[in-house]
Amino acid sequence: MSRRMVAGSEEHKNLFCQQFIDTHLTFEPEELPWPELTEVELQRLRAVPFWQEVYHTERRAGAIVHAFLPQIEDPIVREAARIQGIEEARHARLIRVLIDKYQLNATEQPIEDFPADLEKAFIDFGFGECLDAFLGFGAFKTARESEFLPEKMFEIFDVLMDEETRHIVFFINYMAWRERQRGLIAPLRALKSTIFYGRAVARLKGMVGRGQDMNDGKDFNVTQAGVFLDGFNFTKFVEDCYRENSRRMAIFDPDLMQPRLLPAMAGLALRGLRLWDLGARQLRRKPA
Description:
Elements lengths: L9 H13 L16 H9 L3 H18 L6 H28 L15 H28 L5 H31 L4 H29 L19 H16 L11 H25 L3
Helix pairs in contact: 1-4, 1-6, 3-4, 3-5, 4-6, 5-6, 5-7, 5-8, 8-9
């Protein structure tokens, strides 16, 4: 963010909201060019155990945003959030089309009641989306490079990934605006973010566990993405998350804030992993 732009100011608020509104795309999931899959490709798609969780998460996301809207007093913030709600609901429709077209093992589950504090539910959802998107960047790149599915399928999901990126940039800027409006100092903002990210990690672990149960206990780890690529390398996966995050974030106005904690943690982890890999290679070269 440039020196002239102050997070929490009217200028900042108008920028992140108007940018989000102006980049909204109009399309219908049912009309997208869904490819025909071979039997092998269908088996791969059906082997992924978390479609029901993804579908439920997207439906819940749209419902949370819609429920929170009446509590947003600022008109332009409310309009941007309304568009986010439209896009979240459309993501659910897109997953539903995928499920129906390719006969995936997923049924519609009732959406649980939301807590009385709808803003907290919205914030919980936002940090969860930040975590999911960051990991999703790496998993998407890994799957695409391995040709797990036809390129036309990845082109469809690339649109969804772009919208998820827009969502997390909007959310991070909304939080910066919100916290500055409430006078929360930087250390407390960082602590609050860490707590919410911790809650997001716990929810993700729960999703992975439920996916394993639905898959008859077969091993599947979202963060390792082993289902996509034989000979999977964890260091490369973290690099993919980090680089894809940087690439997708590069298109946004530099005056907009971006998620920092997860990329910083990934950068630190990469330095450690590279040192570990280097040490392991040197040990292997030593004569017995």
